[in-house]
Queue: 2 jobs
Job 1
Amino acid sequence: MEFTAKQIAEFLNGTVDGNENAAVHTFAKIEEGAEGALSFLSNVKYTHYLYTTKSSVVLVNRDFVAEQPVSATLVRVDNAYESLAKLMSLYASMKPGRTGISSLASVSDKAKIGKNVYIGPFAVVEDGATVGDNTQIYPHVNIGEGATVGADCILYPNVTVYYGCKVGNRCILHAGSVVGADGFGFAPTPNGYNKIPQIGIAELEDDVEIGANTCVDRSTMGRTIVHKGVKLDNMVQIAHNVSVGEHTVISAQTGIAGSSKVGAWCMIGGQSGISGHLSIGNKVNFGAKTGALSNVEDGQNIMGYPAMPYRGFLRSSILMRQLPEMDSTIRELKKEIEELKAKLESK
């Protein structure tokens, strides 16, 4: 597939600086550009690569001002990064999808399979399960009894959707991810821990993407719910009865403990943790390694453990670096005070 700068600009409602007939057939990072490639510039740290890149076309923000001659054709758009995502989505959608059920797959006669579905070798679809139209089920996927997977989904190898759980439309589940494993529920007794049956479900709404080896546990009762548009990175843990609000994004190695509720449009940095039974508001931003031990109101920017306002964390970090000198000063002052006290007592 090949597109000209003019066609790209028309698709993105942009304008062309340079040769509108410059053609591209692939994508490349701006520092690794080659003839026939399309690149983008949205971070000013990479501006110097624009003047040396070999890419044929580069997406830039509409207000970008070049300080040196540029050999590549520029397509000016409102948001270069967002426009790149649109182009890559268009490119991916034009690739023909797989269809057909492998003879090595195990698909129950009691399952409902939609149109144009692909089910790869050694995948299992159990009794009463439903798979929507155009969904791609890769090898070694297991869709449990009575589970539902919507239309236009992609389930990569070794994904497991446990019995009774639900996956919406246009969801992407990466390799090794699990929807509906038991929540971590145990009752202590004098002889050990008794397992509390987890009789609820886990549900992903439409347009959710979860990364490799991420787990969304089923609820003790009711449901664990990941609302529409949420994006979970690799190795994220969503515990039982958690609710994650619409369009929230959560980075790798983050864990959310049971029964906590996270609002919409939050951004949670990597290796963060949220204690159980908390309420996190809408549009809350967590810096990396943040640990929330109490409720957080809407619109907060927090960081650190225990979590604190971002600016307070920066001030505390500065003080932490000064602690050795402060300790030395305190010891000297303490010594001087003891010497003054001794002199006063001797009079």
Job 2
Amino acid sequence: MTRARVFFYVQHLLGIGHLVRAAAIARALVARGLDVTFATGGVPVPERMPAGARIVQLAPASAADATFRTLLDETGRPVDDAWRAARRTALLSAWRAARADALVTELFPFGRRQMRFELLPLLEEAAAARPRPLVVASVRDILGGGQKDPARQDEMLAIFERYYDRVLVHSDPRAVPFDLTFRHAARLGARLHYTGYIAEPPAAPCADAAGEVLVSAGGGAVGARLLETAIRARRLSALAERRWRLLAGANLPQEAFAALAARARVEGGGGIVLERFRADFGSRLAACALSVSQAGYNTLAEVLAGGVRAVAVPFSGGGETEQRLRARLFAERGLIEALDEAQLSPRTLAAAIGRALARPAPPRDALDLAGAAKSAALLHGWLAR
């Protein structure tokens, strides 16, 4: 019997959060026996690729900064029309070769407007195919910058209505309903499906991480200030005698990493460990006394999966409001301690750590965290019908 085929498109531009979520769903689809083609257009992250899927690495693109206005190619130069044409051709060739029964686009049409040059032609080909494939959007809990622009939201709805059958919203509506940031959510009706948050299953605690303070900056592209402040906050905090492990992320510039390493040596007295990343992040998170991080989707989902006390400092550069809203909503439910980035200082971070330690750890069932498995189950069921 021929396996159903799914073509999954994802583009990460600054951090790797979008890639991590998409890869988790792709792995769950493979586990259900589906044939998955995984087309990724960001800077390659081989260790995050979903095992068992057919990987299509498009010419890498990244964002020049947190405004996402300028796309850069793999050499760091702004992309031009020739680059766009070549990437569009490569994507459409991969789509035709996959002969997929379903097309899933991560975030688009609710974001990634920068990629319309290739996504609209892809959607046109899907619409013209016979038999027509199922077309599904995969989107996180909170939309980014476009949420405040009514015209932008009207455009999102128009593209959805023209090309899409369903949308998977990777959220728990008890905490973050989609209509908080998408004003047309009610118009989607029964085509909108909440999956719960996408989180890795809780890892077994790592013995040598017990009692650590784990400070993480996601991919690291915009985390230098948080890491530097954490180094200076350690001696002021209630956990000054604990080991602090700082994970800077692969995208933190080398000069910034070197400056942090120098400050950690001066202020840490051997009690601060600075690393780029840890493959055993989940195990260390499960064992730590406290997590300090930004308020990115993936990090907070893993914090909740591990039942860890946490301080979140949402990134708000470039006019971004997504992390700030998520941090506020989670804090209102008593799941984390939130500290606004504008108020971040060694003293305010140390105080936030004290408040987080005084509250109970969040229960692991506080939110639905089975988003990858539920997404795969829904797609599998739709294709079976």
